[in-house]
Amino acid sequence: MINNIYTISQARKALDEGSVSSLELTQFFLRRIKEKDPIIKSCLLVDEVGALAAAKLADKRLKSGERGPLLGIPYLAKDILMTKGLKTTAASLILENYIAPYDATVIQKLKEAGAVLLGKTNLDEFAHGSSTETSAYQITHNPWDLERVPGGSSGGSAAAVAAGLALFALGTDTGGSIRQPASFCNLSGFKPSYGRVSRFGLLSMTSSTDTIGPLTRTVEDAALVMSVIAGSDLKDATSLKDNPFASSLKLDNKELKLKIAIVPEFLEGALDLRIKEAFLETVKELKALGHEIIELDLKASKYSVPAYYVITPSEISSNLARFDGIAWGRRANEALDLQSFYKEHRGRGFGSEVKRRIMLGTFALSAGYADAYYKKAQMARELIKEDFAQAFSQIDLILTPTSPHPAFKIGAQINDPLAMYLEDIYLAGASLAGLPAMSIPGGFVTEEGKNLPFGWQLIGAFQADTLVLQGASILEKINNYHERQAETEL
Amino acid sequence: MKFKEEDILNIAELAKLDLSQAELASYGEQLSSITGYIESLQSVPETKTTSTKQGLANVFREDKAEPWEIDESEAALSQADREVGLVKVRRVL
């Protein structure tokens, strides 16, 4: 019975009928983590005691007749979200022994909804990366091919869900960190509009683009998670007022005919030809279903990665200044004066990619260069936003590949930071403009006898989160690739 | 922009970071190649940079202190060097 539960909605049904308890479900996933995670290495922490206690509590609530979308559902959270009483490391040595004194708002909301936190997942250190290889602790393996990366920075979350270690996982997306791993692991990954989910308790990377969202097996599951975690928060000054997911969202609407734009420029250059072919096939299918497809010229999109890699390091250099080693963080430091204490602490605590970004941001904001880099990047950002705003006055959604290629091999790009930054080529635009976007399974290519998934991205207008999910639901059902499991690999 | 070793050391000083030998050796070339790539931003036409996100408004709350439980503040400062309840730092001057 439990072996056939892959999605939240299947588990929801079983829990509500009473054919399975949250405790049984939780024990099942804890066992799977024990069995499979020594191979996948997706979790940095497993909280067995806390999870079992939360499951028993959820069972009590279920027995008393209470119902809720995530009541009793086991999940994992990216280890950059604060969890009271549990270690929160951001996969960095600088927070090796840091225990969060409070819960992030999302964690708090999930707790109140009765979801069961199983543990915390691996990520690129401070979410700086696209492969989860910059984690100070471990390399996570892609369940579809263990020699390959799961993507990043929410790679632990993606690998865990793809390996069936939890029913969903929270990720964060600053420039593609939910969407790219979703495409590498055959999952749905939703990046909500900026402000849709409270950032309170998320260790800041790029405050102006950071978002929190779910990695799930289906679009329907993503909507269920969003219904709990979206909404305004007095502790986040940029949070949006309403929660459009609150009332039960009708995902499958046969009447809904969409006007979808594709960007011809995105189909040239680096894109894998097999993915391009599948993309054009999908466009045909959408037309056959009665949706209108138009071609769109996003003139400023060529600036999106360059602007992103000025704005992001700039905000990082400022946000990570707080890791000074005074009140918390790694200690052991022989420096006698404060300045050398800082330098030693940060030099030893941060990994090479984090330091590289802090350096880049410090440079981009330094006197004499801020106008040439930071200010220009902000101008480019305005152009990108205008481009999108204009497009969305005439269309509903934009469809693109999520990544130009399937998952790459572990180690293949680690010494080439620029190549790693170009992973965000289709993704950074929506982040800079604060738009909702989702990656859903798009198909498979075969490499060395292994099936490697890739994904499609749908981008919507600012605040049109539910329309993105509705479009994704249509797209998902064309080939039902989401039903394929990676388990044969394990 | 081509970064020489002294440029890298200067930025590291501003960013308060000790660098390893390997980082010092590789950052110059890497930062040069990254800034070479972002050089394309120089062709961005002059526009206003007033970044007003559509639909977002300031969120205010009452300025009311919420006292932490003792164990919460203890947890927050658990790794600090402390004396008589105060956090100790190295000498400044």
Tell me how many strands of chain A there are: 11
Placed side by side, the strands forming the largest sheet of chain A appear as: 1-3-2-4-6-5-10-11-9-7-8
Low-confidence stretches of chain B: none
Task: Return the string of H and E elements of chain B.
Answer: HHHEE
CATH homology superfamily of the domain at 2-257 and 408-414 and 437-489 in chain A: Amidase signature (AS) domain
Q: Considering DSSP H and I runs of 4 or more, what fraction of the residues of chain A is helical?
A: 25-40%
Order of helices and strands of chain A: HHEHEHEHEHEEHEHEHHHHEHHEEH
By DSSP (H or I, 4+ residues per run), the number of helices of chain B equals 3
Major beta sheet of chain B, specifics? 2 strands, antiparallel
Shape type of chain B? flat
Mean pLDDT of chain B: 85
Question: Could you report the average pLDDT of chain A, rounded to the nearest whole number?
Answer: 95
Low-confidence stretches of chain A: none
Assembly context of the chains: heterodimer
Please compute the radius of gyration of chain B using only Cα atoms: 23 Å
Largest interface between protein chains, with number of residues from each side: A-B, 73 and 55 residues
Our count of helices of chain A gives 15
Beta-strand residue fraction of chain B: under 5%
Number of strands of chain B: 2
CATH architecture of the domain at 2-257 and 408-414 and 437-489 in chain A: Alpha-Beta Complex
Spatial sequence of strands, sheet with the most strands of chain B: 1-2
